[in-house]
Amino acid sequence: MTNRFCEGDPAPYYEAHVFCCVNERPADHPRGCCKSRGAEKLRNYMKARAKELGLDALRINQSGCLDRCELGPTLVIYPEGIWYAMHSIEDAEEIIQRHLIKGERVARLMLQPEDKRPEDRRLLAGE
Ligand code: FES
């Protein structure tokens, strides 16, 4: 993977920047969407908790589709580029407490690069 950091780059504006997909698709769309799986409530919870906890050095943004819809609701945290799928308020709270506050990882919720759409997995396997 290309190192995209260059000497002399300004310091990141936020210590952590969290993008939560809240994309919505029609109910019959084959890929589904994060919004129909509760993404908006979870994103709003994270944003409110970050404010409540005084986490001013990070930002919780809503985003459009991150293209890992089947695994959602998805979020990605930069600059580290770690992806999670969160399905409950408890998941969101654990990501806040462990990843964003303590700098740990929440392995049970983390998405790996090989976590792909079923059709992409078939293509990679040469089927
Ligand atoms: S709808 Fe959320 S990743 Fe595509």
What is the terminal-to-terminal distance?
Answer: 26 Å
CATH topology: Glutaredoxin
* Small-molecule binders: FE2/S2 (inorganic) cluster
Sheet having the most strands: 5 strands, mixed
Oligomer: single chain
Helix content: 25-40%
What attributes does this structure have?
127 residues, alpha+beta, Glutaredoxin, five-stranded mixed β-sheet, 3 helices, 5 strands, binds FE2/S2 (inorganic) cluster
Condensed summary:
This protein is of the alpha+beta class and 127 residues long. It has three helices and five strands.
Describe the structure.
The chain is built from three helices and five strands. The protein has a single domain (16-124), classed as Glutaredoxin. It has helices at 39-52, 89-101, 118-124, and strands spanning 16-21, 58-63, 74-78, 82-85, 110-111. Strand 3 (74-78) and strand 4 form a beta hairpin. Helix 1 crosses helix 2. The protein has a five-stranded mixed β-sheet with strand order 2-1-3-4-5, covered by helices on one side. The longest helix has 14 residues, at 39-52. The chain is globular and about 45 Å long. It has 127 residues and is α+β, with helices and mostly antiparallel strands. It binds FE2/S2 (inorganic) cluster. FE2/S2 (inorganic) cluster (FES) binds at residues 21, 23, 33-34, 65-69, 72, 74.
Topology overview:
Elements: E1 16-21, H1 39-52, E2 58-63, E3 74-78, E4 82-85, H2 89-101, E5 110-111, H3 118-124
Parallel strand pairs: 1-2
Antiparallel strand pairs: 1-3, 3-4, 4-5
